[in-house]
Amino acid sequence: MQVLDTQISVFPEKGGILRDYVPFHNHTMPGAADEKLLQNSVTLKSNVLHSGDQLQVEVKVTNDQTGHDVPTDSPNRQMILVVEVLDAAGKPIMLSQGPVNPQLAGNYANKPGKTFSKVLKDDWSGEFPTAAYWRPVTLVEDTRLAALATDTTRYSFELPTGQAANVHVRLLYRRSFQKLMEQKGFTDPDILMEEEIIPVEKSVDVKPWLIKIITSSKSKI
Predict the structure, then answer these.
(1) Which residues are CB-neighbours of 101 under 8 A, at least 6 positions away?
(2) What is the mean pLDDT of each run of 10 residues along the chain (221 residues)?
(3) Could you report how far apart the first and last alpha carbons of the chain are, in Å?
């Protein structure tokens, strides 16, 4: 834990006294609403290969900073990976092969990517997914990323030789399932955990070529 620049355990007006025999460590627990914490939880790395008329994207998400599953705690939470390829005009290019986000991802459903979450079903009402984990529930699936684990997904998009494009990879944190948030009136925005933008330059060479990864200007805080 971070060492604090203080020798007082509590405010002096509340009875705090000086203590100089050991350092004070920060015991603050910001939780998953803390943007800085989320942006320093996992590592995102992407590779792009343009071969013929196929643009292949490989995305790796590594849980190397937390020591526990991500997302953790409440089963409402989601970590959503979104992979987009935009042509020179900024229009999305259709996915030809690869995984897509499930319906539970709300506005990102059926879009290239993956959703990491713990999904429960209410045994009494049949509600799915349910946030009421204190009731009798059944675990439907657990796709959370374990500590030190790496999840790898691969995608193919149709991009003829000679056309330029941009690959946009985002990893988002969402407080709860979108449907539940709408029911409860929650307005918490998604938090951008990681992002990479990779330009695909025009090429007339039909031989495979590897594009170097170019990350976004957003850096870890």
Answers:
(1) 80, 81, 82, 108, 109, 110, 111, 112, 113, 114, 115
(2) 67 70 69 81 95 94 94 91 94 96 96 97 92 93 96 96 92 94 91 95 50 40 36
(3) 17
Backbone angles phi, psi at 195, to 5 degrees: -155, 140
What is the rounded distance in angstroms from the CA atom of residue 182 to the CA atom of residue 176?
10
Distance CA 171, CA 45 (A): 11
Rounded CA-CA distance 58/6 in Å is: 47
As its CATH architecture, domain 32-211 has Sandwich (2.60)
Residue 155 is predicted with a pLDDT of: 98
Give φ, ψ of 142 to 5 degrees.
-135, 100
Measured CA to CA in angstroms, residue 135 lies from 128, 141, 181 at distances of 13, 17, 20
Q: What is the pTM of this model?
A: 0.81
> How far is residue 72's CA from residue 193's CA, in Å, rounded to a whole number?
15
pLDDT of residue 172: 98
Instruction: For residues 76 and 181, give the distance between their C-alpha atoms in angstroms, rounded to a whole number.
Output: 10
Amino acid 9: pLDDT: 67
Ordered by start, the domain boundaries in the chain are: 32-211
